[in-house]
Design a protein that fits this description.
The complex is a heterodimer of chains A (about 240) and B (about 180). Helix content of chain A is about 10%, strand content about 40%. Chain A is mainly beta and about 240 residues long. Chain A has a 5-stranded mixed sheet, with no helix packed on it. Classes of the chains: A mainly beta (about 240), B alpha+beta (about 180).
Chain lengths: ~240, ~180
């Protein structure tokens, strides 16, 4: 009889524990604080991308106004911190840039950042990219020319990937009846080289931009962003530090 | 196993089952809602004529103005922006004293007609009327709204680009 009582008590305790556990689980689900959604949108260079030359800056785009840059650093794969100018918040405060005052050598790099938004909501993030100049072998070398022309035709930039000298003015001309654009990366933020942004280009319309700073300038057509892209590399013939 | 042992096992199982079921069904609607009888009204029934007189006496001649102090100060959230968002009118955290006819956005890149805008009150009523209108310069987007009563409003939009990709943004304003 005593064993029976014990059995009943054990069954009862098990039931209470099961029900209690169920309720604890439910209340935890209900009261769990909703995690702040990340305001990070994208970057130039894109996370995981490889550039055919050094970027001129690392540019971060967000979906809310940045109020403060807590930290924003770049380091090589060996852990060497790359010196740079102070990070800047753009006039449209959804963009932060780390201007590079040196040419990055071939290799892998990692940017780490802590960016703060309204009411001091600070968010951490990082991105990695690589520089590999081996890709320049496939580029059209137009160095030494003060002006360079690129056609927009057959849903492509022609030539799509060119090397020019500092101070070169590049002019794009639309040769077909489709609307095209010349827009600096990323799509759709267009923040990397802010003046390298055309509006809609109809047949025979032109757009020009003069490139002063050495580095890689990835760009695209905003009407055909998935298929129509190119890169301008500005090269002064000097090896990176 | 004796009969009394079997009985005890059965009782124990039933007790456990009842406790478990009670726990699991605690948050669900009971199948039978207890009916609470409303207190019997003491008002005698009126004839149609009497009712008309009562209505005339109790209906105010003009609707009373919305008491402005009845609405608490708005608590605005964090604004999110699509790419190319420059400004809006009303802007985030604006507290207006008169109802706007429209919400107007300014972008710094060609906006597409596929873009959408929603203007909702705190209770979720939609006040946007028709599709948003893209300006001739392709840089403005105008969303007409119906008469907004005083309250808190959330504007949610989807800005679309020439390749038809779209990106969301959201801001809030209040009318007092």
């Amino acid at each position: 009889m005593q064993r029976l009582y014990s059995f009943v008590i054990i069954i009862f305790i098990l039931a209470v524990v099961a029900v209690g556990g169920f309720w604890t689980f439910r209340s935890q689900q209900a009261s769990a604080p909703s995690e702040q959604a990340s305001f990070f949108a994208d970057s130039t260079p894109l996370d995981g991308s490889t550039l055919p030359a050094s970027p001129t800056a690392v540019v971060l785009n967000f979906t809310s106004d940045v109020t403060r840059v807590e930290s924003f650093t770049l380091q090589s794969e060996s852990g060497e911190v790359i010196t740079s100018a102070e990070p800047l918040i753009d006039e449209l405060a959804t963009t932060v840039r780390l201007p590079l005052d040196q040419q990055l050598a071939d290799g892998s790099y990692r940017a780490d950042f802590t960016i703060c938004f309204g009411d001091e909501q600070c968010q951490e993030g990082s991105l990695e990219f690589a520089v590999d100049r081996a890709a320049l072998e496939a580029f059209t070398d137009l160095r030494g020319q003060p002006t360079v022309s690129i056609d927009l035709d057959q849903l492509a930039f022609n030539p799509a990937n060119v090397i020019v000298s500092p101070g070169t003015t590049v002019t794009w001309k639309n040769l077909e009846g489709l609307e095209h654009y010349v827009n600096t990366d990323t799509h759709p933020y267009h923040t990397y080289e802010f003046d390298m942004n055309s509006r809609k280009l109809n047949l025979d319309d032109e757009f020009s931009h003069t490139f002063e700073q050495v580095g890689a300038y990835p760009y695209h057509c905003s009407a055909h962003a998935d298929v129509m892209a190119g890169t301008i590399v500005v090269d002064d013939g000097q090896d990176p530090v | 196993m004796s009969l009394s042992t079997k009985k005890t096992y059965a009782v124990a199982s039933v007790v456990a089952l009842v406790v478990m079921l009670a726990g699991c069904t605690r948050n669900t609607n009971p199948a039978v809602t207890p009916v609470v009888e409303p207190p019997a009204t003491q008002q005698p029934s009126l004839t149609a004529q009497e009712q008309q007189i009562v209505d005339t006496l109790t209906t105010p001649e003009a609707p009373l103005p919305e008491p402005q102090e009845s609405l608490p100060a708005p608590a605005f959230g964090t604004q999110t922006k699509s790419a190319h968002f420059v400004s809006s009118n009303p802007a985030h955290e604006d507290i207006l004293s008169s109802a706007p006819d429209a919400v107007v956005f300014t972008f710094n890149f060609d906006i597409e007609p596929a873009s959408t805008v929603s203007v909702k009150s705190a209770s979720g009523t939609e006040y946007a009327v028709g599709d948003p209108i893209v300006g001739a310069d392709l840089l403005t987007l105008t969303q007409n709204v119906s008469d907004l009563p005083p309250g808190d409003y959330t504007v949610s939009y989807s800005a679309c680009w020439p390749d038809q990709t779209c990106h969301p943004g959201q801001f809030e304003f209040a009318l007092r």
